[in-house]
Specification:
Elements lengths: L2 E2 L6 E2 L17 H28 L1 H9 L9 H20 L1 H9 L7 H12 L1 H7 L1 H11 L7 H29 L5 H12 L2 H12 L5 H37 L13
Antiparallel strand pairs: 1-2
Helix pairs in contact: 1-2, 2-8, 2-10, 3-6, 3-8, 4-5, 4-9, 7-8, 7-11, 8-9, 10-11
Length: about 270
């Protein structure tokens, strides 16, 4: 039976308004609520699991399919990166106890300034969330390196969201079980394992972009990835210089007392 849309007053002939997309009016009852809950959980879980499975199997191909328009079954890539990073952060804090492990490892370093300890502990503990926040910057580096290969900046944002999701999934599946096993060992051991795992990133980038640009030769992909890494190193050096300048300016403005936080702890 036809009825007027409660949103725009157009006549609804089916289940949805052809003008604004509003669903046909249905009184809210127990069945309505349970149907909404079922749809929400099944839809989210299906999209999340589908994307996660495909990213693990073919990360670059999955990103290419989404960018090329095959999106109906995929979880939104930026949202996926947020969700996986949240899961990663929860596991590192609540299950592995990475905050305490990193504090213990950093306390044994030769240069044991309080500021550097806090800074490195912050980077380690919030690395997943910081990586999500840095997606726009990473996208800029890949856009520069792959600038002649036909994709705009925003498509590179999506690519980097997929790569971060890929790396986060590998971290959760392969790295975290090892860290959990060694969580009561020497903190330096856990730190070393994490650092060694990060050495996989260049190889994972080559794998990702070779799948994405499957018609390009491997040599070209490797050179582009090396260019990305070079840009990141340059940006890191610039960041260190800016931080150092900031410290010196702070010291000049506030006197020698401002440098106490950078002094080594007394043994």
């Amino acid at each position: 039976m036809a009825e007027n849309c409660k949103n725009c007053s157009e006549i609804i002939m089916g289940n949805f308004c052809m003008n604004c997309g509003q669903k046909k009016y249905k009184r809210i009852d127990r069945k309505y609520v349970f149907d909404e809950i079922e749809y929400t959980f099944l839809h989210v879980n299906k999209g999340l699991l589908f994307s996660a499975k495909n990213i693990l199997k073919n990360p670059g191909k999955t990103a290419k399919e989404f960018i090329d328009g095959n999106r109906v079954n995929h979880y939104k890539p930026i949202l996926l990166a947020f969700v996986l990073s949240g899961i990663s952060t929860f596991l590192s804090f609540k299950v592995i106890g990475l905050k305490e492990i990193m504090s213990g490892a950093l306390s044994k370093q030769p240069v044991n300034a309080q500021f550097m300890n806090n800074y490195m502990a912050f980077l380690s503990n919030y690395s997943s969330i910081l990586s999500v926040a840095m997606i726009p910057f990473f996208a800029l580096t890949t856009k520069i390196a792959f600038r002649r290969w036909g994709h705009n900046y925003y498509e590179h944002v999506v690519m980097n969201a997929y790569f971060l999701s890929f790396y986060t999934l590998l971290t959760i599946i392969f790295l975290y079980p090892v860290l959990f096993f060694f969580r009561h060992s020497d903190p330096s051991t856990v730190l070393s394992i994490s650092q060694w795992f990060m050495l996989l990133i260049p190889f994972l980038l080559v794998w990702f972009f070779k799948e994405f640009y499957n018609d390009r030769p491997l040599k070209s992909i490797i050179l582009k990835v090396l260019a990305v890494i070079g840009l990141l190193i340059v940006a890191y050096i610039i960041a260190i210089i800016l931080v150092t300048i900031g410290i010196l300016v702070n010291a000049l403005m506030n006197g020698p007392e401002a440098l106490k936080q950078f002094a080594p702890k007394a043994k």
